[in-house]
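Our consortium's second objective concerns turning raw sequence data into structural hypotheses that experimental partners can test. To show how far this objective has progressed, the report includes one record in full. It was chosen at random from the queue rather than selected for favorable results. The single chain below, 71 residues long, was entered without modification.
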Amino acid sequence: WWVCGTSRGIVASMAKTKHSPKYSVVKKYYNTYKPDGTRLWTDEMVHNAVDKGWITAAEFEEITGEKFETT
């Protein structure tokens, strides 16, 4: 947490966003490249992680940079 004092009072904000328990694993797999230059996990695999409840749709968008669309 960080706290910022202002003339109107104190404003508090979370400095670090809370992610789903499997967020870091999914992000790691997505950001890992195989020797042939392709990703270890595709966008579809990350989408499946949302369907399984491992991560949220917002986290999908954060990881892939793509808009999450339901199938």
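The partners drew two points from this record. The radius of gyration is 17 Å. The first strand starts at residue 2 and ends at 6. Both points have been shared with the crystallography group to help prioritize constructs.
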